[in-house]
Amino acid sequence: MPVTRRPRPLLLAFVTAALVALGCVSAPADDDAGRPAPPAPTAKQRTTPAGEDPDGTDTPEEFAADIGDATGVAQEYWKAGFADSGLDFRPVARVIPYEREGEVECGGQPLGLNNAAYCSDGDFIAYDVNWAFAAFQQIGDAFIFYLLGHEYAHAIQNRLGIQHELSIDQELQADCMAGAYIGDTERKGRLKLDDGDLDELAAGLEAVGDDPGQPWFAEGAHGSAEQRTRAFDRGYKQSLKPCDVS
């Protein structure tokens, strides 16, 4: 995954500060021509004037670059995992941004605003670009890497034929898989984490998880903020073992 832009910090910690995410991601071109792996995204010095965003997470160009980086890292991770298991890997076909409700459909169902979704019918990820960009500005790169990691996990579930009876189990497993992809990739040096961003991540925790009182067995349930954080943390620290991926 070429990273030709100015390096920026990846905002990540032991918890995910992402909002509810449902989808999947697309894949950039493979780098199989014997070229050396590109450098990992690294933190830049925070030298911007007071009152400005020190992370630079404020332009559509930087947002688009992070979408590409997160997609590429996720594809790279799962391609290697499939190869280790002797399985053929097929990357997600497309990542589609949209701006209007119903602009993109999945299996005849229009996708709404403030959402991202993996659609197995067409094998694509679609996301409300304005919603995702606003979260990117408020939370930072962590949101994008988590969002793409969670959604790519849904694509991997589809490829492996994993289908839980309850949506909450499907979603918590995807959170665990997203944690594994980020943690394993960091341990391999493919991503570099900025230790100073925990506070910014914690600011997004209240937005994670189902509303209080949401039944765990309800259709579309994702899990409470505590459940989702715990699932992500297990994957981040222990890789795929606690995610029960088979």
Structural class: mainly alpha
List segments where confidence is low: pLDDT < 50 over at least 5 consecutive residues: 1-52, 201-205
The Cα radius of gyration reads: 17 Å
Q: In this structure, how is the largest beta sheet organized?
A: 3 strands, mixed
The N- and C-terminal alpha carbons lie at a distance of: 27 Å
Please give a structural write-up.
- This protein has 246 residues and is mainly alpha-helical.
- The chain has one domain (60-243).
- Helices cover 39% and strands 7% of the residues.
- It has 6 helices and 5 strands.
- It has helices spanning 60-84, 129-139, 141-160, 167-187, 198-202, 225-238; strands at residues 94-98, 105-106, 109-110, 116-119, 124-128.
- A hairpin with a 2-residue loop joins β2 (105-106) and β3 (109-110).
- The protein is globular.
Describe the SSE topology.
Elements: H1 60-84, E1 94-98, E2 105-106, E3 109-110, E4 116-119, E5 124-128, H2 129-139, H3 141-160, H4 167-187, H5 198-202, H6 225-238
Helix pairs in contact: 1-3, 1-4, 2-3, 3-4, 4-6
Task: Give keywords.
disordered N terminus; mainly alpha; 246 residues; two-stranded antiparallel ribbon
In brief, what are we looking at here?
The chain is mainly alpha-helical and 246 residues long.
